[in-house]
Fold this sequence. Notes:
Elements: H1 25-42, H2 44-49, H3 81-91, H4 101-111, E1 119-122, E2 132-135, E3 143-146, H5 153-159, E4 166-169, H6 176-185, E5 187-190
Parallel strand pairs: 3-4, 4-5
Antiparallel strand pairs: 1-2, 2-3
Amino acid sequence: ELSLSLKFVLVQIPEPIDSAKYPSIADICKERIRRVIKKLSKNTYSQRVLDPNIGNDFGFITYKLGPSNIRGWNNYDGQDIARLRDLFNEAETPLVDGWQAPDLLTEVMLLEGFPLDSTVIEQKGFKHNHVMLVESDACAHRLFVCLDPQIKADTIAQMALIKRDVFVCLDSALTDETKMQLSDVCRLKVV
């Protein structure tokens, strides 16, 4: 029986080339992958072999190296108290302006040691929050990520976290009491 479940990471420098249709080598590579996906999707043999109950994702994701979503600390070596206060006020929100949840999720995954080919599944059944579960054969623990502005108590109870699980959320999404409770049942990390 043929299995078409492949996961891989391909790195291609976007070296420019002299082509209007494909401005870089990376664009040629993406087009070749699209053509293979199209061919696999039309192949009747692969449609018979693949399990219709688990879905057939022939897609791919492209990433570009970009700046961090987490604001860095600016050291200050002066005597101006007002400037120092401004620096602390800026650090109150550790995320850069305009951050996007998918970008931050990818950054959190990488910071927590999960590879780009990890399985990321949005957990169903949560009434108030969007919770993502990240798993990989390369990691012995699970990673739960919720980037909502506030996390409800029923969400925390429903996750059924265990000691080796890592839960990452926004610092402002939890009360101090909830942070202490979560620290007792899992490895809590906040951004």
